[in-house]
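Ligand-bound model needed. 1,3-dihydroxyacetonephosphate.
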Amino acid sequence: PDERQALKARIRRLLKERNAVMVSHYYVHPDLQDLAEETGGLVSDSLEMARFGRDHAAQTLVVSGVRFMGETSKILSPEKTVLMPDLDATCSLDLGCPADAFAAFCDQHPDRTVVVYANTSAAVKARADWLVTSSCALDVVGALKAQGHKILWAPDRHLGSYIQRETGADMVFWNGACIVHDEFKGFELEALKREHPNAKVLVHPESPAEVVAMADAVGSTSGILKAAREMDAREFIVATDNGLMHHLRLQNPGKTFHEAPTAGNSATCKSCAHCPWMAMNGLADVARVLETVANTIQVDAAVIERARLPIDRMLDFTA
Ligand code: 13P
Ligand code: SF4
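Prediction:
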């Protein structure tokens, strides 16, 4: 604990010295979430992280999360220094959607509007017409459908098929998945619901359809938090990365939250629903990158110029 406190004090001092602000995702370690909030930064979902980084006056952003979040911040603010605790913190959706193969897929469907999830590389975003996160995907695709667009969707097949079921849009899909949410299981969730009959089920839409079908509320990380605050219930089962438990419990003292079962939930693995890449973010790394200005995010200027279009569309749409 002393070492943690010392690291936190060092980070607070370095943030001031470097005129830097910290932006953390809800899935990173609670220490990094708390530090961001305590120091005037932000802990939020991927959409609001992007907006906050763009609008904040600080010249240096420390993005605790995964690589696509740092890249989005850099695309929106190329003049800023964007630091990440670990540049190898990626995402299975990003890894599973290489830019070249994705461009070839788009070429096969020239009549479709390309809607890409935020969890992708800058190069994939540079091929998109629209960017979305899980908090605005339904509304964006719904609006595009109303305008007569046919959609090419990438990369998360579960989120894509959820949006298709909800909007009825004509969509073709890239076959990607989040390794964390893909593990939530319907059968085991049924059993847990029987154990907790009064619990409401909150689900991130990167989860499989059988799990989404059992949800009382489906939403992004911030959507799940909102549902937990507003729903008239005392007990919840939550199908998302267990990093979200920190804010669920902080915002709802007196309410009880259970983790939804994953394939890996067993005597040896009590909390398998945690993203291995989000887990790569640590206090010591944040202190080190602020001290050395190592781990800066770099994005090619031509990619920035093109990738900015779909991101700006999303931010304008949700403003
Ligand atoms: P949110 O956009 O809901 O924050 O989700 C990002 C993410 O990586 C979910 O796994
Ligand atoms: Fe990617 Fe899933 Fe990790 Fe989110 S939780 S960063 S979607 S692998």
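The mean pLDDT is 95.
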